[in-house]
Amino acid sequence: MPGRRSSRPATLLAACLLLAGCTGATGTTATTTATVPDRVDVERSSRDSDALLERVLADDAPGCSAAVGVDGEVVWAGARGLADLASGRPLTTSTTLDVGSVSKQFTATAVLLLEQDGVVALGDPLSRWVPDLPAWAGTVTLGHLVHQTSGIPDYLADLEAAGVLLTDRRTQQDALAAIAAHPELAAPPGARFDYSNSNYVLLAEVVAAAAGRPLAEFLADRVFGPLDLAMVLDPSGADPANADVTSARSYTRTATSVPWQPAGSRFEQVGDGSVQTTPSELVRWADVYRTGALGGPELLAAQVGDPVPVEGSTGYGAGLFVERTGPLSHAGSWAGFLSGFAVSGDRRVAVAVSCNGDQAGTDDLDRVWPALRGEWL
């Protein structure tokens, strides 16, 4: 059962600033009032990005949507492939997809907003907010959960070991029961970084208990709404029975020699994933890491400052991998959906990609994501 995986990270011509066009076969370059960094040549990079999608993605198979933002403004977006194989509906830059673990930064931000409100503290024990857990919940803090150092095993591995399929319906309570079934932690809290989806399912419960409303409602009111972001936390977006013509269906296959098979998930858990949106909205969101527009310098410092060590120069902040030199990134994989999100070291340029086909060995995200990061970042 595939999990919500962790991260895998010239000048603008005046004519392109003045035109709403600068279009390619698969993408568009938007007019922008932002002062583009000297290293970024929007016209050339847009042309090369259009050519990349045309070259590596088929127009009759699952595909990818991608976008680039500068200072929170979309300067290029492109898409190629099909959102729904059964109907032949094309994937467009306005098609929404499940972004998997890229969602974790929003859950972490919700917790940090509640801390800023004085409602919770990262030093609070988990047991204060989530009942009916083993004794170890008194030793795990909210900060351990945010930074993936709790030592709590991943509930997705537990469900997989029990033979649960992604197409089986499972609730938030089912996930909590799997977590609570562990009498001991895999490591002492704070001992080491150990990526576990359980941490963020539990944070969703913390938000619900502390705010008195579900995480989805809190994000809509305190994050998505104030920033005018077309995003929603809704696990049904990945449901294979979802018939919404504005969203994509997902697919998997084991090799290029076999047909694509419908994928998707009926899991209802939130916190570790399940945000539905487009790459264009993700790169607009990314500008909070430059401006601190959501909660000011205090929240920004909590989101990306003092990350816990992961390996080499990489650390983990609030739902994001943070490089010592400044770049941010996270990837997501869930039930046939694949996503990548990255922000440059100066926090001015952001790139996001979402795909709806997961192929064993190598997939569309592998072919598109590194190339777009190299082009723009």
TrEMBL record:
Organism domain of life: Bacteria
Keywords for this protein: Signal
The keyword Glycosyltransferase is annotated on this UniProt entry: no
Keyword Signal: yes
UniProt-listed Pfam families: Beta-lactamase
Domain named Beta-lactamase-related: residues: 54-365
SUPFAM superfamilies: beta-lactamase/transpeptidase-like
Signal peptide: 1-25
Gene3D superfamilies: DD-peptidase/beta-lactamase superfamily
Listed PANTHER family: BETA-LACTAMASE-RELATED DOMAIN-CONTAINING PROTEIN, D-ALANYL-D-ALANINE-CARBOXYPEPTIDASE/ENDOPEPTIDASE AMPH
Protein name per its UniProtKB record: CubicO group peptidase, beta-lactamase class C family
Species, as recorded: Geodermatophilus dictyosporus
Lineage: Bacteria, Bacillati, Actinomycetota, Actinomycetes, Geodermatophilales
